[in-house]
TrEMBL record:
This is Acetyl-coenzyme A synthetase. It catalyses: acetate + ATP + CoA = acetyl-CoA + AMP + diphosphate; (E)-4-coumarate + ATP + CoA = (E)-4-coumaroyl-CoA + AMP + diphosphate. GO terms for biological process: acetyl-CoA biosynthetic process from acetate; phenylpropanoid metabolic process. SUPFAM superfamilies: Acetyl-CoA synthetase-like. Its EC number is 6.2.1.1. It comes from Ensete ventricosum. One of its GO terms (molecular function) is acetate-CoA ligase activity. Residues 575-653 form the AMP-binding enzyme C-terminal domain. The keyword Nucleotide-binding applies. Keywords: ATP-binding, Ligase, Nucleotide-binding. InterPro entries: Ac_CoA_lig, ACAS_N, AMP-bd_C, AMP-bd_C_sf, AMP-binding_CS, AMP-dep_synth/lig_dom, ANL_N_sf. Residues 124-513 form the AMP-dependent synthetase/ligase domain. It is an enzyme of class 6 (ligase). The lineage of its organism: Eukaryota, Viridiplantae, Streptophyta, Embryophyta, Tracheophyta.
Length: 691
């Protein structure tokens, strides 16, 4: 069996009232537990948790919905504000008629998120506590660590340098770094001086990097010469060089590149250098003072941009602001991971994604947590590396992605069980739905059936967790993200946008705003309004499908738009298509997602070649290379399916539904093909399946 048996004495936690759904679950006893596959936190875990019963959750949740201003003001008051926010606390104008959207939280409040993450924790007596542990790619490599006080000094030196070279409030800075300590340091240095950081995941290609540079016009690009990941050395500086040539050609020159010499990967002597533009971090930053006054900013001043994929080819610059994001990431971190000061926290995500922003850097550091940053690849040198790291640093909270869980599961239990893992007390999952069998393996094998799993559903746009277990509060169901976080009102709507109640499946939307919500798309507020608030008037549309079961648990079912999720990375089908058609031999391309055992989804591309070019292995390889060069290796198609013509409706729309069925080989479920311009196109495709 799995999990601990339900505790009858849990009833002792329950008051006479509370949410009926949740009560029904807890009161339902063993039989219902088996039926529903409920997994209860141990009594001991719940007793020590911040929130230890469904009723306690329910009381807080009700207050957060009935009195958002009061609820969030109380929490925000725990941070340092130079000036308190306006009395109305928040204002949300989601105007159905005009289609305009404006969201503000803590407007008028003046604060600084870097001050709250570092100075405030130091003043509270935690200056000597470890803020960051850093584990390099090689197991034997010298590990490093920084206390809160040391980290503040590093952040101040860089902040002073950035000010010295003319970066000020409201300027943008691109950070293109791997998982070195310098990455969170650079983010915080920008935040300290009111500059807007835009971190670009170091797996993105030169083309993608230059696209982002052209869009946000940074004063400085911060990068490093190279990094080792697993057995590979990646020459990031060369990618930056190429990107900067392209951005100059697009009329956006970058005058300054601050390059960190990552000595374990590459020496500076072998790094190509552009004198006048390139500066070694180590040559300049350490010369600056270790104290730097903060730039006080309004709660609604921008904190960062993070580009993400949507259903068109152009990435969207998701914009987050200071105050609400600070309050929201800190609070979600505390409750969803039941954070305690003694925890050692490890999130395997890269700071190039939102998870690394909210739950490597800001959320944990705002709580004064000790955070582990790992440079390498989780299966290098062997699939036991994660557990080696867990034991070495006595990690208590491990937050990772289903794709890694599935990969490690396939490698076998022995890699896990040879390590103790007894420090672990909470496991977390993010990025895509976690299938019940991976959930069980994570729970039973990795967590020895002791550690609750927080399966956190959220998005780049939401800033922080939206639907997530509160681990001590209620029983879990493997594969369900459970219930909404405080202040979040998820609704499931049908095609027409009508809310559906009870047990149902539909489109997931969110009613009202919350402090961590994104405020705009950089430079394109109208696209923000049309993409997210028009599809279902009055709601924020998530792009995800969702079911609610009879007990009110939420089950995310994946994207319903043209976004695919490969190993937790969000990729727009349109982006891959435009990369493919940029290849001179490609006439047309249509990309769909297909189930993949480890990656969740794989990328399946149908390609029509220009007349006269025969399909060959060589062409296939160069098409894949085109995608790697245009986007990055993580977006490379798993399969190229040669398509003499791509099936379309008479009005010229690609029939993706049919393409998905063929991709997943559900050939007897193609459905109605009579609306196609030429139904025989489908037969032709099927005939070419094994070509
Ligand atoms: C945080 C992050 C967002 C999309 C989202 C959804 C999927 C993320 C999930 C999940 C099911 C979870 N997603 N977490 N689906 N269960 N726990 O991943 O942000 O990169 O913007 O992706 O990821 O489809 O819409 P982002």
């Amino acid at each position: 069996g799995m999990g601990s048996a339900p505790h009858h004495d849990r009833l002792g936690h329950m008051g006479p009232r509370g949410i009926s759904r949740l009560n029904a679950i807890v009161l339902g006893e063993a039989l219902a537990a088996e039926e529903n596959d409920l997994v209860f936190p141990s009594h001991d875990f719940s007793r020590h948790a911040h929130i230890s019963s469904p009723e306690q959750y329910q009381n807080m949740y009700e207050r957060s919905i009935e009195d958002p201003a009061g609820f969030w003001s109380d929490i925000a008051s725990q941070f340092y504000w130079k000036k308190r926010w306006n009395p109305e606390v928040y204002s949300e104008n989601i105007d159905v008629r005009s289609g305009t959207v404006k969201i503000e939280w803590f407007k008028g409040g003046v604060t600084n998120i870097c001050y709250n993450a570092l100075d405030r924790n130091i003043e509270a007596g935690n200056g000597d506590k470890v803020a960051l542990y850093w584990e390099g790619n090689e197991p034997g490599q010298d590990a490093q660590q920084l206390t809160y006080a040391q980290m503040l000094e590093k952040v101040c030196q860089l902040a002073n340098y950035l000010k010295h070279v003319g970066v000020g409030k409201g300027d943008t800075v691109i950070i293109y770094l791997p998982m070195l300590m310098e990455l969170p340091i650079a983010m915080l240095a920008c935040a300290r001086i009111g500059a807007i950081h835009s971190v670009v995941f170091a797996g993105f290609s030169a083309k993608s990097l230059s696209q982002r540079i052209v869009d946000c016009k940074p004063k400085v690009v911060i990068s490093c010469n190279a990094v080792c990941r697993g057995a590979n050395v990646i020459h990031l500086k060369e990618i930056v060089d190429t990107a900067l040539v392209e951005s100059v050609n697009s009329g956006v020159p970058v005058d300054l590149c601050l390059i960190f010499e990552n000595k374990s990967a590459m020496k500076r002597e072998s790094t190509k250098w552009q004198i006048g533009r390139d500066v070694w971090w180590e040559d300049v930053v350490p010369q600056f003072p270790t104290k730097c006054l903060v730039e006080w900013v309004d709660a609604e001043d921008p904190l960062f941009l993070l580009y993400t994929s949507g259903s068109t080819g152009k990435p969207k610059g998701v914009l987050h602001t200071n105050g609400g994001y600070m309050v929201y990431t800190a609070t979600t971190f505390k409750y969803a991971f039941d954070y305690k000061p003694s925890d050692v926290y490890w999130c395997t995500a890269d700071c190039g994604w939102i998870t690394g922003h909210s739950y490597v850097t800001y959320g944990p550091l705002l709580n004064g947590a000790t955070v582990l940053v790992f440079e390498g690849a989780p299966s290098y040198p062997d699939p036991g590396r994660c557990w080696d790291i867990v034991d070495k640093y006595k990690v208590t909270i491990l937050y990772t992605a289903p794709t890694l869980v599935r990969a490690l599961m396939r490698d076998g239990d022995e890699y896990v069980t040879r390590y103790s893992r007894k420090s672990l007390r909470i496991l977390g999952s993010v990025g895509e739905p976690i299938n019940p069998s991976a959930w069980r393996w994570f729970y039973n094998v990795v967590g020895d059936s002791r550690c609750p799993i927080s399966d956190t559903w959220w998005q780049t746009e939401t800033g922080g967790f939206m639907i997530t277990p509160i681990p001590g509060a209620w029983p879990q169901k493997p594969g369900s993200a459970t219930f909404p976080f405080f202040g979040i009102q998820p609704v499931i709507v049908d095609e027409k946008g009508n809310e559906i109640e009870g047990e149902c499946t539909g489109y997931l939307c969110i009613k009202k705003s919350w402090p961590g919500a994104f405020r705009s798309l950089y430079g394109d507020h109208e696209r923000y309004e049309t993409t997210y608030f028009k599809p279902f008037a009055g709601y924020y549309f998530t792009g995800d499908g969702c079911s609610r079961d009879k007990d009110g648990y939420h089950w995310l079912t994946g994207r319903v738009d043209d976004v695919i999720n490969v190993s937790g990375h969000r990729i727009g089908t349109a982006e891959v298509e435009s990369a493919l058609v940029s290849h001179p031999h490609c006439a047309e391309a249509a990309v769909v997602g297909v189930d993949h055992e480890v990656k969740g989804q794989g990328i399946y591309a149908y390609v029509t070649l220009v007349d006269g070019i025969p399909y060959s292995e060589e062409v296939r390889k160069s098409l894949i290379l085109a995608v790697r060069n245009q986007i990055g290796a993580f977006a490379a198609p798993d399969k190229i399916h040669w398509a003499p013509t791509i099936p379309k409706t008479r009005s010229g729309k690609i029939m993706r539904r049919i393409l998905r069925k063929i991709a997943s080989r559900q050939l007897d479920e193609l459905g109605d093909t009579s609306t196609l311009a030429d139904p025989s196109d489908v037969d032709q495709l099927i005939a070419l399946i094994d070509r």
